[in-house]
Each structure stands twice: as C-alpha cells, then as structure tokens.
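Give me the fold.
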Amino acid sequence: MRILPPNNPWIDRVTDLAADWRFVHLSRGWKPGLSWLGRQLAMLPYRQLRFFVLSRSLAEPMPEPAQKIALKVRPFAPGDLEWVRREIFPSEARLFQRRLERGHMGFVACHGERIVGYSWACTDTTLERLELRLEPGDVLFTDSFTVPAFRGRGVQTMLSLERLCAFRERGYARAILYIEVHNTPSLAVWRKLEAQVLARVRFRRVGCWRSTQHDP
C-alpha cells in the first residue's frame, strides 16, 4: 500500500463543496440543501470505498446490442461545460475543465438536441482517486454519467462502445476502468461488453490523504 497526497489541494475541496452546496440549495431548496451538505461534511474526515478494476481487450470483436432509443455520440466540447455546471454540479465542470486542459477525451450522448449522458477516457491517471498503473497500450475509461430520466435505455452502452471503437482505431490494445462494487447498473453494462475483473481494490481517504490497497 502506498499513501499518496491528494490530486487537488485541500482548498479546492472546500471551494468545490461550497459551489456544489449553493447549486443544491438553489435547485432543490434549503432543507434538501442542508441535508446534502450534512452528508458531504460527514465524509470529509474519512471515506472508504471498494471498487472492481476491469479490463476489456480492444482486439476482440465488439458486441452489437440493440439500440433502445435514437442516440448520437459526439466529442465533449468546451461549450458542454456550461451544461454540466447547470445540470450536474459546478465541481464536475471544474474537473472536466482540467480534463480538457490535459488532453483527455470526452464523449457526449445526445437524444435529439438534448445531452443525456457523457463519459471520458485518458492515459493520464493523475486526476483519479485510485492509484492506477497503466501498461503500454492501455487507456483508462472514467467519469460516466446518464441523466436520470434516460437511465436503463442504453446510453452508457452506446458511449462505452464509442470509446472502445475510438481507441481501438487509435492503436490502443486494452481498456481499463474501475467501478464501485455497489454500482450494479455500470457493472451490468460492462458484463454485457464482456469486460473481465482484474482486481478488487479498497480506497481510503483520511482528511486530505489517500490510499489504495488491493483486496485478497
């Protein structure tokens, strides 16, 4: 186990928390906002999560699941940050700004003109909460989200297939991703896409220090 300093300074965490709390209480009201803030503050001193680390070969044939709704996938553009800031959280828009600056590749799924989901991929792991080591030819799939009204309608399956094909065309050999063990919908998507479990890992954060440890 290695203990790592945080990816972002502690002051950034407090700034993000303040911006997100303002977003929640303005969009949902004071009581939900205070309830949300209480949960976030309770996690500041200590957080523990467990993840599956999965892989999917890009050399293997891609499945062709039936498309449940009409979707168009395009690259994530800087202008999409305003949608993230308005519809998700200001902290997500701030993170995605960093991803764009570092050359990470984002994808957006649209139903008509409406954005209904996004996902990201990169070979730079410095923004991840887990300590991950990629092998040559690996690409990391990260940060996926679907608008609640469109969940269960194949959005993430389509976004994941687009990422797999895009990075296969760029000469990559393997996709790596990590999913929280209780995130059943995401795990179901990757089972359908024939991903294999590489490891189970435990993430701990104590204050502003983080650690990643492999579980037996």
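Residues 10-28 form the longest helix (19 residues).
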